[in-house]
Amino acid sequence: MRFQAASDQSLLVYLGEEIGAAAHERVVWLLRLLQRKPIKWLRNIQPAYCSLLITFDATAVEHAEVQAKILELEHRAKTLPAANPRLVEVPVCYGGEFGPDLDWVAEQRGLPAEKVVELHIAPTYYAYFLGFAPGFAYLGDLAEEIAVPRLESPRKEVPAGSVGIAARQTAIYPFGTPGGWRLIGRTQAEIFRKDREPMGLIEIGDQVRFRPITRAEYLATRRA
Amino acid sequence: MSLLVVESAGLQTTVQDFGREGFGVLGISASGAADAVALRLGNLLLENKAGAPALEMTLTGGTFLFPDGAVICLAGANFDAQADGQALELWRPHAIFPGKRLAFGATRDYARCYLCVAGGFGVEEFLGSASTQLLSGLGGWEGRALRKGDVLQVGKLEKNIRRRKLRPGVLDALKPEKKLRVTRGPQFDWFAEEAQRTLAGGEFVVSEDSNRIGLRLDGPRLATRGHGEMISEGAPVGAIQVTPSGQAIILFVEQQTTGGYPKVANVIGADLHCVGQLRPRDTIRFEEVSLAEARKLWIEQQSLLGSEERLFA
């Protein structure tokens, strides 16, 4: 565990130096420890691949005290509530108007488009964390064979439900927002609904699989 | 219950309060007023809750009608407000009689003016806040900036408004400065010595391409030295991240909650309201302070903002 002040009111806790299951298990573990009982000075927790950013009430505590509290929590932790990851299946219509970058990805990586789809649906992905926009889950690990860089300049508007890839990650855009990932398909699944519990279709630690559907199936699915 | 009718909305007018902090696990940034100090003072002058929902106007304000009248207070930037042609001062309560038209122009000084109303604006809360998040279209008034024809509800006026005034010196102590104090960011050491010096001494210009998500800075580029691969991590509000081309971006209230660019510095909490009052083409500088100094300044500011005796005459 390594600590680093990020601002006058926040502290980064690093739990590994490499993206992968080992570091992330520790991230989720510390997240659950911090969530177990309310902590008065704790304002926000932002998990990521290998770290947690902890924002605190700087009128009440300083960095050293937050650090001590985390070490104490870690030291005392014996049992933890078992994580029960859900398996979420997301139906996706690949290519065509819904996946405008599919052919580009195929060409870049010297693969037929069908193979790109095959490689995208093969793994059971892991939701490392949510960021960018409400409900936007960073899913890994994308097959190396179809890893491509982000767009040089992001699109001004990516339609809600778009499935994008960037480096070794994939994600679904919950809202029509700007976005720089390469779009290979789209889903009608509602990624974030404020009137649903939980609001996000995918939460940190969940497992995600993509299921290919035809254009006709996609169009037959109506958003509620 | 009384109403506000939007005759014209201005450049970007949204409902804001202190935001919804604490939902990073869901990927949700806090949002909230860009200048939380102005919002607080405007509300307190009306004896509202400090974080009552108000309208945040950006660079150019709109025109509004209160068909049933209202008591208002304007805070932040001077947008040349008038009620049926009569100029309205900032930082004091005004009674707006039924049917009077409240008109704002373009800013004369800073970026954002807050229209606070006694009783606050009534909108449905999302995750405990009335704040609008434009990126995802959540919260506030239908998740978007106001448009002509929108009709908002105004909370009930509970009591008579006293003629409250700010003590002399309060506004000076909280004046939005263009020199922002920063602490070192988590990747400060990744930057070349020249970049570290540039950050401390250089002048940067706020780009037109700036908003509540982030402020892009033109001017000197900040080069990193060779370093390992950056793994995306949580980024605090006020983080100054640097793109591969060397451009600095200040992450702001509707920020992405995580980021993969190195962060050279972070605006201190006590100066975040200054960021909310920066306009495109403003020239800014940075000054490094220690974490201890930043904390002291934050506690001092919070103590002033929390003290009725120190704020009001």
What would your notes on this structure say?
The complex is a heterodimer of chains A (224) and B (313). Chain A is of the alpha+beta class and 224 residues long. Chain A has 2 domains: 75 residues, 2-Layer Sandwich (Gyrase A, domain 2), CATH 3.30.1360; 134 residues, Cyclophilin-like (Cyclophilin), CATH 2.40.100.10. Helix content of chain A is 23%, strand content 30%. Chain A is built from 5 helices and 13 strands. In chain A, strand 9 and strand 10 form a beta hairpin. The longest helix of chain A has 16 residues. The radius of gyration of chain B is 20 Å and the shape is globular. With 313 residues, chain B is of the alpha+beta class. Chain B is built from 6 helices and 21 strands. The mean pLDDT of chain B is 95. In chain B, 15% of the residues lie in helices and 27% in strands. The chains are: A alpha+beta (224), B alpha+beta (313).
Considering residues with a beta carbon less than 8 A from a beta carbon on another chain, report the largest interface and each chain's count: A-B, 48 and 43 residues
Sequence of strands across the biggest β-sheet of chain A? 7-6-13-5-12-9-10
Shape of chain A: elongated
Multimeric status of the protein: heterodimer
CATH architecture of the largest domain in chain A: Beta Barrel
Count of the domains of chain A: 2
Beta-strand level of the residues of chain A, as a percent range?
A: 25-35%
Parts with pLDDT < 50 across at least 5 consecutive residues of chain B: none
Largest sheet of chain A: 7 strands, mixed
Task: Give the end-to-end Cα distance of chain B, rounded to a whole number of Å.
Answer: 30 Å
Provide mean pLDDT of chain B, rounded. 95
